[in-house]
């Protein structure tokens, strides 16, 4: 099973950017955590991070041939990107959305997620553990499909 893991804008600044919200561990630690979770679940993952909406859309489209599902933290694009929603819908792969913080307890504009209109599951506020939950969910969802 192959899962594409996409991280959106500013996640490359983990550990430096608002550690009170996002924690003190850096992006490399997140990548290591995801790879270890994937190994324990016997899932192959490819990790991708971009600060650019079009690059994320291109990566989603490229998943059509070769991936069984997508785990995405769209970050700020959560609340603004119909293009990412449309790309996920177009490729029609099982998708789990993950957020390090609980977006429902943040600023009003952060409470709506375009991605959640497509994703089969949204996980918020569990920090790095949300990625583990998302991978586990996708493995089971794909297995049962």
Topology:
Elements: E1 2-7, H1 19-22, H2 27-41, E2 44-49, H3 53-62, E3 69-73, H4 82-91, E4 95-99, E5 121-124, H5 129-144
Parallel strand pairs: 1-2, 1-3, 3-4, 4-5
CATH class: Alpha Beta
Radius of gyration, in Å, reads 14 Å
What is the spatial order of strands in the main beta sheet?
2-1-3-4-5
The rough form would be described as globular
Main beta sheet = 5 strands, parallel
Number of strands: 5
CATH topology: Rossmann fold
Tally of structural domains: 1
Tally of separate helices: 5
Q: For the terminal residues, how far apart are their CA atoms? A: 13 Å
Q: DSSP strand (E) fraction?
A: 15-25%
- Kindly state the percentage of residues in helix: 25-40%
Determine the mean pLDDT.
Answer: 94
Low-confidence parts:
none
CATH architecture: 3-Layer(aba) Sandwich
Helix/strand-derived class?
Answer: alpha/beta
Molecular structure report:
- The protein has a 5-stranded parallel beta sheet with strand order 2-1-3-4-5, sandwiched between helices.
- The chain is globular, with a radius of gyration of 14 Å.
- The chain has 5 helices and 5 strands, in the order βααβαβαββα.
- It is of the alpha/beta class.
- It has one domain: Dehydroquinase, class II (Rossmann fold, 3-Layer(aba) Sandwich).
- β3, α4 and β4 form a beta-alpha-beta unit.
- The two termini are 13 Å apart.
- The longest helix is centred in the C-terminal third of the chain and has 16 residues.
Features:
5-stranded parallel sheet; 145 residues; alpha/beta; globular; single chain; Rossmann fold
């Amino acid at each position: 099973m192959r899962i594409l893991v996409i991280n959106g804008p500013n996640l490359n600044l983990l550990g430096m950017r608002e550690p009170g919200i996002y924690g003190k561990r850096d992006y490399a630690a997140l990548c290591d955590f995801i790879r270890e979770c994937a190994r324990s679940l016997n899932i192959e993952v490819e990790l991708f991070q971009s600060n650019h909406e079009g690059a994320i859309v291109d990566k989603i489209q490229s998943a059509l041939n070769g991936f069984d599902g997508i785990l995405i933290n769209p970050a700020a694009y959560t609340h603004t990107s119909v293009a990412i929603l449309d790309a996920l819908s177009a490729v029609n792969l099982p998708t789990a959305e993950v957020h390090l913080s609980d977006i429902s307890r943040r600023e009003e504009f952060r409470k709506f997620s375009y991605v959640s209109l497509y994703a089969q599951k949204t996980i918020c506020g569990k920090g790095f553990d949300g990625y583990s939950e998302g991978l586990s969910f996708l493995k089971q969802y794909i297995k049962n499909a």
